[in-house]
C-alpha cells in the first residue's frame, strides 16, 4: 500500500471518528470521537460520555477499546489501530499501552494534556517494550474546529447567563 492509499484510508476512518465526535457535541459532551479498526473493519466506535455516565474514565478511546476487546474476544489488540479526533490523554495512552495497540492515528494535537507527543510522549517512551506507531494531524482542521466550536458555545452560554440573571433581577426590583 503506498502512502497516498494509506492517507486516504486514514482520512476515511477519521471521518467515522468525527461522526462520533458530532454525537458527543449534540449530547453536550466535549466532542471527541474514536474508532478501533482491525483488518479494515471498524470493531469499536464511541464518543466521550463523561457527563452522561458521570465517569471521568468514560473517554471515547476507553469506550471504543472496551468494545474492540469484546469484538476480538481478547484484551490484546496487537493488530488493531485506533483513530481518535484529539490526541489522547495520559489515561488513554496508558490503556493503549496495556492493549498493545499497533497504531494510533489522531486529528488535532493537545499541547495541554496530550500524551502522544503534545504535552508528553508516553506512547513511545524509551522504557517501554511495546512500540506503537503514531500518525498525527489526520483531518486536524475538522477535528480541532468541532472542539473550538464547542468551547466557544459553552463560553457564550456562560457569559450570557449571569448578565441575563442581572437584568432579570433589575427588572423585578423596578417592578416591585
Ligand atoms: Zn483520555
What keywords describe this structure?
5 strands; about 50% helix; elongated; single chain; about 15% strand; about 180 residues; 5 helices; five-stranded mixed β-sheet; binds zinc ion; alpha/beta
Q: Could you describe the 3D structure shown?
A:
The structure is a single chain. By secondary structure, the protein is an alpha/beta fold. It is built from 5 helices and 5 strands. It has helices spanning 3-26, 50-53, 60-72, 90-98, 140-175, and strands spanning 33-38, 41-47, 80-86, 103-108, 133-135. A 5-stranded mixed sheet has the order 2-1-3-4-5. Helix 1 (3-26) runs parallel beside helix 5. The chain starts with a helix and ends with a helix. Zinc ion binds next to helix 4. Residues 59, 61, 88-89, 91-92 line the site of zinc ion.
Q: Which strand order does the major sheet show?
A: 2-1-3-4-5
The radius of gyration is 19 Å
Q: What assembly state would you assign to the polypeptide chains in this entry?
A: single chain
Cα-to-Cα separation, first versus last residue: 75 Å
List of distinct ligands in this structure: zinc ion
